[in-house]
Please model this.
Amino acid sequence: MVRRYFGTDGIRGRANSVITPELALKVGQAAGLVFRNGDHRHRVLIGKDTRLSGYMIENALVAGFTSVGMDVLLTGPIPTPAVGMLVRSMRADLGVMISASHNPFDDNGIKLFGPDGYKLSDEVEHKIETLLDGDLTKQLAQSRDLGRARRIDGVQDRYIEFAKRTLPRSINLEGLRVVIDCANGAAYRVAPGALWELGADVVSIGVDPDGSNINKDCGSTDLGAVCAKVREMRADIGIALDGDADRVMIVDERGHIVDGDQVLAVIAESFREGGLLSRPGVVGTVMSNLGLERYLASLGLDLIRTPVGDRYVLEQMRALGYNVGGEPSGHIILSDFTTTGDGFLSALQVLAVVKRIGKQVSEVCHRFEPLPQVLKNVRYRDGKPLENAGVRSAIASAEKKLGSGGRLIVRPSGTEPVIRVMGEGDDKLLVEAAVDDIIEALTEVAA
Model:
């Protein structure tokens, strides 16, 4: 199925170049027509992050949805997972998040959620794409049937209460000094507010959005600021969200980074001890460290691997009945609470474990020693380098060299003409040699 507009996480690109008002208007019309079923008054809920282009895209979407007879509820800046929650809670027919997540401010995107709060399936996205390429003039609403639009209040408070309810009533965060970096993004109000209400001593950074500073020198993709602030304030923990707050990275009291694999291990073991795992295991990706897999095995838990992308993690969780999954990048999905990755809820689960155990974050969040992992990229111009005989031979030789004690992943990037080569194993020198052999073969083909 060829996709012209949708990628692995909605429609994304440079604002006013790829994501234009014209495109946003047509997305509103096409998505509205797909979800306009039945005789009831149809509603769509639209949230956004703090990018300047959000105003332009929001207004264009409103025009599109109202032109096909859908009423629009506008929330203002809220995290992506809050949209999934509110769509279900407010019984809307459709949800939209205007965000490009961790991308720079001059990008933006449109993420769509169905009435169940989940992102749309490939089949539904294909229906919308088909309509986008057609003439929708004859399917527009009659003048008397046009939709209305209004801003709704209190959604941030609703998300704060929702987040707090994911913790046991007995848990409070008194005595913990928490640095929270909101990336000048969608969670800049709700995350500090929720932490304060839970009793934490809150130090907030990345909470002064100006339309162009989202993810700039801050947030989960640039951890220098939060690491420095944790050390400066002698905080117990640092929490770094990305622009739409669907991913998180943790920093311990020493200012050292804790990746998503360690967070998964903490949450999985906590859920296991509390009898909360729906199945004995978690879902990760091919990029999750082999150390995580071995650690989970020591607890009697499986690691189910998927291709890279939280979309694939969630698909496997739903298909197999797992309720914990995630990626090293910090996309953690706890399906008992949310329908998509929620960085802030994941951080709350870590905080709850820290509070309950009463130990420092550096100890709580170091569950296993990661195996040496080497990741290198080769850019190519055209063709299919992985089909080259010399490259295939190099990959086979590297796999044999690593043996059963290591892993090798060679895959094309989903967003750029790059081949990514990842190797890991107990012997770092052996891993580096195996990866370099493949890189050399790929470079000869790509040159």
Summary: Residues 373-446 form a domain with the TATA-Binding Protein fold (CATH 3.30.310.50). The chain has a mean pLDDT of 95.
